[in-house]
Hints:
The complex is a heterodimer of chains A (609) and B (173).
Chain A: H1 3-40, E1 44-52, E2 57-66, E3 73-85, E4 95-110, H2 119-129, H3 155-158, H4 165-191, H5 193-203, H6 205-212, H7 219-282, H8 290-319, E5 330-333, E6 338-341, E7 351-361, E8 366-375, H9 378-381, E9 385-393, E10 395-403, E11 410-421, E12 434-451, E13 454-470, H10 478-488, E14 493-502, E15 506-512, H11 514-589, H12 599-602, H13 604-608
Parallel strand pairs in A: 4-7
Antiparallel strand pairs in A: 1-2, 2-3, 3-4, 5-6, 7-8, 8-9, 9-10, 10-11, 11-12, 12-13, 13-14, 14-15
Helix pairs in contact in A: 4-7, 4-11, 5-7, 5-11, 6-7, 7-11, 8-11, 10-11
Chain B: H1 2-15, H2 20-35, H3 41-52, H4 57-86, H5 92-99, H6 112-149, H7 151-158, H8 160-172
Amino acid sequence: MRWKFVIPFVVFILIIIAFVTFFLDGIVKSIVEERASLLNKAKVEIEDLDIGLLRPGVRIRGLAVANADNPWRNLVEVGDIGISVSVLPLFSKRVIIDEVVMENLRLNTNRKTSGELPRRLKKRLMAEEKGKKKPAEVPCVKLPNLDVFKKEFNVKELVDIDRLESVRRAKELSEDVSKMKAAWESELKGLDTKAKVEEIVTKVQGSVESLQKAEIKGPADVLKLQDDLKNLREATGSLKDLQKEIEAKKSAFQKQATGLEKSLKDEITKLKEMDLQAILKDLGLEGITKARLAEAFLCPFLAKTLTFIWNHADKIRTFMPKTGKDQPVQTRIRAKGRDIIFPSVKKGPDFLLREARLSMEQEKWSAKGTIRGVTSDPVLYGNPTRVDIRGTRPQLALNAILDHTGKTPIDTISLDLRGYPLEGFRFSENPLSLSNIARGFLDLKANLTLKGDSIDLETMTTVKNLVLAFAEKEGENLVATMVKEAVKTTPSLSIGMAARGTRENPQLSISSDIDRAFAGQLQRFAGQKVNQLKASLGTQIDGASGKDMKGFSDSLSQGKLDILNQFGSDESLVQENIDSLSNLIAAKTGKSKAPTKGIEGILPGLIRK
Amino acid sequence: MILLKLIAKIFRILNAEASPKQIAGGVVLGMIIGLTPTFSLHNIVVVFLILVIRVNITSAILSMFAFDLIGYGVDPLSDWLGYAILTSTALRPLWIETYNAAIIPFTRFNNTIVMGSFVISLILLYPIYRLAEYGVERYRSDLAAKFQQWRIVKAVKMSRFYKYYQTYRSIVG
């Protein structure tokens, strides 16, 4: 044992511990700021962080989380955060937070400096995000550019025949008719009426001849004649079955031909409308109807909301993945090697925040709430995360249950906000030159359910006493002026927005009473010009596909006629044979109907003879 | 200059009074630190052992640098071996138990490179120890005199640097 080395070694270790303890606050602060900034995609700053070693816990003062979309504002600011941590689990690499108390929480506050990420972190973020699945962009109709009406249009130049889908399809239609005709000709061939009729008639040829020469001399002849008549009736029945089969096919053909004509004409009408919309889109007039105008106005808000929801859901799901006992081996790739993650079976999850209490006291806000059961292993913990926030100024109820304990994560959030003052709300850069809300009160009800990758979102927003402020801009576009006018006459707005489906394919629906206001203004500003343009474009598109449509109608009529003629000749052939056999039966029995009982009833014609 | 210093150091160890066992002990303990990722908790224990047990410290340091270089080449093998060990069904209950124990998770035993390289160094422990011991003995009995006759050794000894070094050693002791 070399004791002379042991003492310096222990001293060295103690110095390291003292150094870390002394600088620990600063080290942890910078690590937290950096990681949180990367997660938030904008600066997260902490004024002071104090780690208590004797009474284990963390105290954070002056937390500011910048808004990634508007770096000159904070999403949230928290004056004081007290975190108390359980000590023993730390030795097992587990962080159990018994309680978090957040006081003086404020939302949407101004910043003195920009909250944009520094260049170094931006580069890291880009590297980290490389290859990550991005949420699908929500397709939105753009606001129309009414300024195009300032110049004259040459409609012929606008309609490029080579690009018209309706013309392309109209050219294909004659081919469709030929295909249908060929299919039915083959069907008729398969029916093979002539062969079937011949087969039936040949089978009863003996009976026919025998009946024609029939004479009753004794009881044996009666029985023979009875058999012949039975054969003839059976043959007539078979022919009638064949006749029914032909009728059924003919009726199916007529139905298909009529259906094809209608569906193709409908398809062409739809394609013409699409062509018209495509030309309008090229002109920047896509959302020119009143409903689409409202949609174009509101869709970006909904699209932004959906992107926000998915981004945050992904963050939460990354932090709260599905692990637990029965999960297969999980790995986490590190710079060198891989970390194999084993389930924390004995003592609970690696991270658990039992309860966070928060309180907001701000000019516009007064609310209190709790967040319970935030954990890195929800399956092991066995309980969902619950958020419950209630406010009195304005009336607020926010409830969320983030249940990641089952096979599919289910996140349910409901929000009911009443009378939130919108005064001072600033809009980010927008094509309508909206600057801020001068006055207005918001009522918002929202229900959101995320189940795996599917979404079900419903919101109903009502804005009362709305006064909007617009930035003065030179050369402002007509739509901006129109919206200004529309909103001026609409002091109260109701907007219902819903999103369903999956993140790749969200189905949006927007309903709003802005429609009425927009309809009036649209009519006033550009109604006549829009209608004239639409009418001339429509005529031009009709003219372009007209020749092919006539060709289609002609070939359809001719094809129909040809097939119906073939059906007609088959029907005649069958009918002739039915008539011939029925006449023979009638001649021999004296009735065309089925015979009655008794020998007179069976063979009255022969007996008379 | 550094290379010359290194060569001089190796020869000094080989010619020192330290026993071959002490040199071999230093080599294998240095090997553990070199092969496994340096900043791991178990290496504090190994450093403690190097300081406390009577092994040759210089040979441990040199061995650590040498095996550190080798370690980079061995990393893919360590990763493969570590993954195989950590994901073995038979050993899973043991790893879960260990993962949930106190302090041990800080050793990063669940990292494939840490586990793989540690197992490799344990496997190599005895052979390297024996090899190092045999090598020192062999050098001292058969090769030491021959090495003194090598031109390069003579050249080093003739150099001004070596003379300065000798003077420095005689002063420092």
